[in-house]
Design goal:
- The structure holds two protein chains of two kinds.
- Chain A is an alpha/beta fold.
- Chain A has a single domain (24-153), classed as Response regulator (Rossmann fold).
- Chain A is 55% helix and 16% strand.
- Chain A is built from seven helices and five strands; from the N terminus they run ααβαβαβαβαβα.
- Chain A has a five-stranded parallel beta sheet, sandwiched between helices.
- In chain A, β3, α5 and β4 (108-113) form a beta-alpha-beta unit.
- In chain A, α4 packs parallel to α5.
- The termini of chain A are far apart.
- Residues 1-6, 13-23 and 155-161 of chain A have low confidence and may be disordered.
- Chain B is α+β, with helices and mostly antiparallel strands.
- Chain B has four domains: 52-158, PAS domain (Beta-Lactamase, 2-Layer Sandwich); 178-280, PAS domain (Beta-Lactamase), CATH 3.30.450; 282-365, Signal transduction histidine kinase, dimerisation/phosphotransfer (DHp) domain (Helix Hairpins, Orthogonal Bundle), CATH 1.10.287; 368-526, Heat Shock Protein 90 (2-Layer Sandwich), CATH 3.30.565.10.
- Helices cover 42% and strands 23% of the residues of chain B.
- In chain B, β14 and β15 (451-458) form a beta hairpin.
- The A-B interface holds A 43, 45-46, 48-50, 52-53, 56-57, 87, 89-90, 112, 114-115, 135-140, 142 and B 305, 308-309, 311-324, 326-328, 334, 337, 341, 344, 347-348, 351, 391-392, 394.
């Protein structure tokens, strides 16, 4: 119950913030252009659409179809933001996040889920997931989540090289 | 010469006296010889009764004194009883006076000649045995009329008769009070129906001809006719089937009742008779329907999580593409890109519709709607439907479909449901395997034992032999959260198709489920 409350608050907070963050949103992609983004999503259509979306904004988004492939690129280069689906063939999103936490603890984590489940949420919180995006997601959902992440990170003054 | 006459007279007298005594002696000798012969005959006659269960005796009609007696049972028929009263060892007079039913007075006609023998059965209170008694007056060697009684012990026969009577009574009680409706049919005509049967079908006239089958639901008529024909022609020894009846015996009268019916030919009173018994299973059927719905809902729940994923992914794709399109809208140099996006949008939309259609089909309520179909079709459909679940378990199913299968009369949705159930069961069973273990799932279609077989093999932990017999039972489950209904429903669905569901050990190491379906006759592909 408490957990659901937290999630609800976070989701509501998300909506409230949107209005006050138009300015930031307008400059979001300028900031993002300096960052490395990784997407792990097995659904080809969604993966392609997000790739195109970021490409169209001139951002560097590397997209992979499985956690294993995601890990292999994580071992080669650092990422500022990692967006991963929860349900993946083979290694699932949570295990991937666990591995990510060890490899690159500073990376910002966004979890995509189609089917919210308390156990999954609790585990994701524990692993320090910064943002959840529930499917079906829209470009606004993605932008809002990224804005919030950049704001928080910006506050901490730490940006990836 | 006067002395000569008296002398002559004396001599004559002496001769007469001598002759008289001689004659008397001769007569006595003759009588003794006759009596001895009679006694001998009686003895020989009596000797026969040494071989009979029971015995015989002769008693005086007045004094009831036993004059002669013989028999195997010495207590009742011992020779030491000569001189005692016949009623002392038998009779209902309590041994103190002549029996109440003593036959003496009717053994002799009014003119003093012996009457016809008196035959009766009676239970002797002395030994509690039943006797068949034949009484007749006979001439005793001394000339008087005496009573001869031959008593044959018929206790065993009496007991057998009693047992038979009791058993018949019990049997009748059993049949009359049975919770099962029982019908006897001779030449298509009802000759007997018990009360439960009357309740089930209404009070049908005994002469009703069954061959019209007016009481049977039109959809079940063909099935019933076929079973009736098979039994009548001796193709099968017994038929078991379920069908719907109009409780009034005729359509539009009464309500529909589901019955489980068994019919087998018997010999009844020397005539070829059909013994038909039926149980009202309407409630069970209703429960089964409810359980089927519930089970469908629970499997739907299981599928729903997968469906959410399947729908929300393309929906997300659409949203992202739309968002991107919005940004490209006023940039003509992006035209080619936009075209591509439109294509992808349409594909995503179609994908969502396909997913929804599958869910709707799956949830459809189930009367059997059979169609002649290539059995490979539902196999392929079920595999497609199960892909999400299987992928989640890290399983890539293997399909070996036989190319030349005969068509089967099947309800596509229901067979798909059965296969989906088997596939998810396999996937869940393989969940128990240690990580890194092989997770193999193979689906094959083939011809076996004259039937079309759909075989699902997995490399899971398998089903122990003890569980194998029970696994198709309703409510039997080895899963903590299972209802134990899935396989039972599957079993029923396959039975409804005239096929069978079998469990065995797989060569992949786990379980093998065999769905055996009868091919549609005369429709073999060449």
């Amino acid at each position: 119950m408490a957990l659901k409350g937290v999630v609800a608050e976070r989701l509501a907070g998300k909506k409230r913030e949107v209005a006050g963050m138009i300015a930031e949103k307008s400059t979001l992609f300028e900031e993002l252009r300096h960052l490395n983004l990784l997407l792990v999503e097995d659904d080809e259509l969604l993966r392609n659409s997000l790739e195109l979306f970021f490409e169209n904004e001139g951002c560097r988004l590397l997209a992979r179809g499985s956690a294993e492939e995601g890990l292999s690129v994580l071992r080669q280069q650092p990422f500022d933001v990692v967006i991963t689906d929860f349900r993946l063939p083979g290694m699932n999103g949570l295990d991937f996040l666990r591995a990510l936490q060890e490899l690159q603890p500073d990376a910002q984590k966004i979890l995509l889920t189609a089917y919210m489940n308390e156990n999954v949420l609790a585990e994701a919180f524990r692993l320090g997931v910064h943002e959840f995006i529930e499917k079906p997601l829209s470009t606004d959902d993605v932008e809002d989540a990224l804005v919030r992440i950049l704001n928080r990170r910006g506050g901490a003054g730490k940006i990836c090289q | 010469m006067s002395w000569i006459y008296p002398a002559l007279l004396g001599a004559a007298v002496a001769a007469l006296v001598t002759t008289f005594f001689c004659l008397k002696r001769e007569r006595r000798r003759l009588r003794r010889r006759t009596e001895a012969a009679l006694y001998r005959q009686l003895e020989e006659f009596f000797a026969i009764f040494q071989a009979v269960e029971g015995g015989a005796y002769v008693a005086d009609m007045e004094s009831h004194e036993i004059l002669a007696i013989t028999g195997r049972n010495q207590e009742l028929f011992g020779s030491n009883l000569v001189g005692s009263k016949c009623y002392e060892r038998a009779g209902l007079g309590g041994g103190r006076g002549p029996c109440l039913f003593c036959s003496n007075r009717i053994l002799v006609n009014p003119d003093g000649t012996p009457a016809r023998p008196v035959v009766r059965e009676f239970r002797n209170p002395a030994d509690n045995h039943w006797y068949l008694c034949i009484d007749r007056a006979i001439h005793w060697p001394d000339g008087r009329l005496v009573r001869l009684e031959i008593a044959i012990n018929i206790t065993a026969r009496k007991q057998a008769e009693e047992n038979l009577r009791r058993s018949e009574h019990n049997f009748r009680e059993l049949v009359e009070n049975s919770l099962v409706g029982i019908l006897l049919v001779q030449d298509g005509e009802i000759v007997y129906q018990n009360p439960e049967q009357r309740r089930l079908l209404g009070n049908m006239p005994n002469s009703l001809l069954l061959k019209d089958f007016t009481a049977i639901h039109p959809e079940d008529l063909a099935k019933v006719r076929e079973s009736y024909r098979k039994i009548n022609s001796g193709v099968v020894a017994q038929a078991d089937l379920e069908f719907r009846l109009y409780s009034g015996g005729r359509r539009r009268e009464g309500e529909l009742v589901w019955v489980y019916c068994r019919a087998r030919p018997i010999d009844f009173q020397g005539r070829k008779t059909m013994l038909i018994s039926m149980v009202d299973i309407s409630q069970a059927k209703e429960l089964e329907r409810l359980v089927r719905v519930q089970d469908k809902m629970s499997s739907l729940g299981r599928v729903a999580a997968g469906m959410a994923h399947e729908i929300r992914n393309p929906l997300s794709g659409i949203n992202i593409y739309l968002g991107t399109l919005q940004r490209m809208y006023d940039r003509p140099e992006m035209r080619a890109r936009v075209e591509e996006i439109f294509q992808r949008l349409m594909a995503a939309s179609a994908k969502i519709e396909a997913v929804i259609q599958r869910v709707i089909d799956f949830a459809k309520p189930g009367q059997l709607q059979v169609r002649a179909l290539d059995p490979n079709q539902p196999v392929a459909a079920a595999l497609e439907l199960a892909t999400v679940i299987l992928e989640r378990h890290g399983i890539v199913p293997e399909l070996e479909a036989a190319a030349e299968l005969p068509l089967c009369r099947i309800d596509r949705q229901q067979i798909e449901q059965v296969l989906l159930n088997l596939l998810t069961n396999s996937a869940e069973a393989m969940e128990q395997l240690p990580p890194g273990a092989r997770r193999l799932l193979r689906v094959r279609t083939l011809m076996a034992e004259g039937m079309v077989e759909i075989r699902v093999d997995d490399s899971g932990p398998g089903i122990p032999a003890g569980v194998r017999e029970r696994i198709l039972d309703p409510f039997y489950t080895t899963k903590g959260d299972g209802t134990g209904i899935g396989l039972n429903i599957s079993h029923r669905i396959i039975s409804d198709h005239g096929g069978r569901l079998e469990v065995a050990k797989s060569d992949l190491g786990g379980a093998r489920f065999r769905v055996m379906l009868p091919p549609e006759s005369g429709m073999r592909k060449t």
